[in-house]
Amino acid sequence: MSRSHGEFELIRRLAARVGECEAADVVGIGDDAAAVLRDGKWLLLTCDIAVEGRHFRLGKAAPADVGWKVASANVSDIVACGGKAEHALISLGVPPHVSEDQLEALYGGIAEAAQSYGFFVLGGNVSRSQELIVDVFMTGTAQRFIPRGGARPGDRIALSGPLGDSAAGLELLDVRQRAAANDHENRLIRSHLRPRARDDLVESLQQGASAAIDISDGLSSDAGHLAEASGVRLDLERSRLPVSPDLQAFARSRDAAHWKWVLHGGEDYQILFTFPREHDPVFEAAGIAVVGEVRAGHGVYLDGEMLIPEGWDHLAE
Amino acid sequence: MSRSHGEFELIRRLAARVGECEAADVVGIGDDAAAVLRDGKWLLLTCDIAVEGRHFRLGKAAPADVGWKVASANVSDIVACGGKAEHALISLGVPPHVSEDQLEALYGGIAEAAQSYGFFVLGGNVSRSQELIVDVFMTGTAQRFIPRGGARPGDRIALSGPLGDSAAGLELLDVRQRAAANDHENRLIRSHLRPRARDDLVESLQQGASAAIDISDGLSSDAGHLAEASGVRLDLERSRLPVSPDLQAFARSRDAAHWKWVLHGGEDYQILFTFPREHDPVFEAAGIAVVGEVRAGHGVYLDGEMLIPEGWDHLAE
What we know:
Chain A is of the alpha+beta class. Chain A has 10 helices and 13 strands. In chain A, helix 4 packs across helix 5 and helix 5 packs across helix 8.
């Protein structure tokens, strides 16, 4: 349930109409996944929707890519709460211009994801609609629920991998077909079409993370959500942010610095998280980049300057 | 996850691409809800989508009605498996022509349903789309999972209440506004816009039902699904099918017999179920109508004649 600012505000307003659930054994609106404590374990619930023309274009993304990606976005929400994906339901809205072969290919992409991440598809439904809509609901389990709101002053800030590759890949897709001119461009396009949720991190997060969020709307937006939920200030160091050689080559080819993509590009599905310093050995062993420190205060700062969100808003026209 | 024939076949084909889950502690595609055995209880998972222009028209249904109804459809799927609804996520696709006030009203209808049925909305997401889409995912819990496939020859067939009122209400809506000429028409319209899932039946179903399905696509379709899943023949008696006085009055005003609506009308959300004869006292006490008997064989028969499905297909144009 990743979302950007406008969407987030609307959900908050709508939530007020429904009445939030305040029980100690339930986590509701405002985290990557909802969570319910059952028999000592957290049942995680999340959903992510992919709408044609907004989240993907069928001329640019193959149907299998669309299936893989929406499944990965859901797995990423589960991972960000420290959980393992278990079961999924798939709701499809199918317009007349989408063939059954395309639908089967889309399901094929979800099947690849299911096998790769280890979840099972248990059902769903199909309806007619004007544009292709793939809405995935997913459950997961976590021994401990890792919230957005658990960061404390003095904690380290860590990032699971480089950002910006997916946004660069999208720009390449906008001007080219899926197969691009060279290897680094192909890898960037693949980062956009076939992002990998960081399910390999769940054990480390369980061992030490105090807060976590997945980067789906861009670092500047999602870091802000974590800072706000935790009531802290995040101080990031530019020189410590991991940047892929592919993005560096892409930025050079555009005569641009790579920061625009690193700071504001969405859909990389890396995990931004915090941990108390005593857990340094856990995350050093996992090869995780420390990119800053949690301080008292509020907001997100990069080398001491406030970082203004420019993330993707799925409600923007 | 109620569905009609075309939709059902497509889901089966797509499911083959995903790989069905065959474990003894999991119920996958082909029942009203999926189910996972956890710590001795069944976790039920279902989703139902409402698409503007297909499942509702905003000029005919108030946004609050749309919210109530899609929530009720989900609760009905949980009830049909013998469960109690617990938590929900709401995915919205919002077109530019729908205002935030309308969205709040829609959420208000979901909130009414949540309070009435006793479930909690824990989250969701919002995206832009071309038509209004409300996709509800719901979880529930059942001590015992009641499948479609549990009916055995000799069992009674029971129906929780009259059918056809919702379909008649839809016809009235097509020619009138929400407020109709007389009380019986208003009640039929309300049956269509504000159906009540039969959550009052869960305890009785738990005590004695061998199989159950909710009537969302019409008796002729849904009885066929139960017969097929159980590998039995259902013999229904016309004279025992409950018919509301409102539907009788409506049919008289159209110079028609009421059977068309009773046998093929969808979205009444009554429960068709079977039970072994030794449980007669349980269901007599609950005031449930026995409408026929399970026999060896296959298909659905009404007074000895095969009943051909003419249910609603959400994939039909």
